[in-house]
């Protein structure tokens, strides 16, 4: 009897593991398929793979996860650039560009924070109310992307070529690509929700 129970428990564990593995694979496939709509596919899959289990094939959760990743990266970049601005031995124009970039990234973080909060409440909105709140999310993510471009735009002058400019551009390139992906996934969620609403 004891042996029977033991084998039964082992069999149950195997079934649960197999089911879990299959489910996780399905969730990851959803992320990979959704990321095909973005400009930076590999980066999209890499940044969202760890969220696949919580996304569970849900467009809203996918969009929220994408913005959350963007927000976390924006916060990290803002802290990094702020630290650069606080170090000595900077040219006056270089220092001003860094300060302006910090201001832009502060606005960027605020926009993405609003987006995450708004998107988290989307399930309670319907019809025109949903459209209005969805437009808010899209506007804020677009605004965040603009703030990121404004940051790097401050270093356009060739007189600022050097390690600081290269460091900022490298960091911001990744942040902008992640935010661009997030915007594409947000737009995809908006379109699919409209299709479902129009064709119940």
TrEMBL record:
<keyword id="KW-0732">Signal</keyword>
<keyword id="KW-1015">Disulfide bond</keyword>
<dbReference type="InterPro" id="IPR006501">
    <property type="entry name" value="Pectinesterase_inhib_dom"/>
</dbReference>
<feature type="signal peptide">
    <location>
        <begin position="1"/>
        <end position="20"/>
    </location>
</feature>
<dbReference type="Pfam" id="PF04043">
    <property type="entry name" value="PMEI"/>
</dbReference>
<comment type="similarity">
    <text>Belongs to the PMEI family.</text>
</comment>
<dbReference type="GO" id="GO:0004857">
    <property type="term" value="F:enzyme inhibitor activity"/>
</dbReference>
<dbReference type="GO" id="GO:0048046">
    <property type="term" value="C:apoplast"/>
</dbReference>
<keyword id="KW-0964">Secreted</keyword>
<keyword id="KW-0052">Apoplast</keyword>
<feature type="domain" description="Pectinesterase inhibitor">
    <location>
        <begin position="26"/>
        <end position="185"/>
    </location>
</feature>
<dbReference type="InterPro" id="IPR051955">
    <property type="entry name" value="PME_Inhibitor"/>
</dbReference>
<protein>
    <submittedName>
        <fullName>Pectinesterase inhibitor domain-containing protein</fullName>
    </submittedName>
</protein>
<dbReference type="InterPro" id="IPR035513">
    <property type="entry name" value="Invertase/methylesterase_inhib"/>
</dbReference>
